[in-house]
Amino acid sequence: MVKNGEFVVPGTEVGFSEEFIPGDGAYEEGSKIYASLSGILVFDMDEKKVMVDAKTSIPSIPQTGDLIIGTVVDVKAQLAIVNIVKIKGNNRGLPGEVRGGIHISKIRDSYVSNIDKELKVGDAIYAKITDREKWPLQLSTADKDLGVIKALCTKCTMPLLQEKDKLKCPNCGSIETRRLSPKYGTGEI
Full-prediction pTM beyond 0.90? Predict the structure, then answer.
């Protein structure tokens, strides 16, 4: 059996549920407690708890209110599906594929009649998580700083350039509209 202060990796047996309850970085399966993180094993004898003090960075876990960068992967009549790539302020990627959805009513702070004029498949967006309890995660681009930050021409796939409140393709001349962020094309978030 491992001892207090030892380094453990995920899956290491660290205790029994008859003696301890699992704390941060530990989980119970059957009558045994296992490490769920790599780190230093800590026994709290007062609370009868076993924990793992992480010594590696922990993957980002999306929270309500987080600002995210994502890519639109599907657009339906009332909903855009987004693959969430990154949480602002966290350099570590997300564990696996994390999806979000933007309902048509959450694209702008005003009425939107056609979602296709606001978001397109392939658009990079800056959005906010409004509800992490639902799946896919609920997103919004209604705040003034949020929206599309990079878009490709739907005719020739060249990056679109912003001209006032519209987007123009430098290759084929196509004019398109999107729910633009003020940060469109700047590379800054």
Answer: no
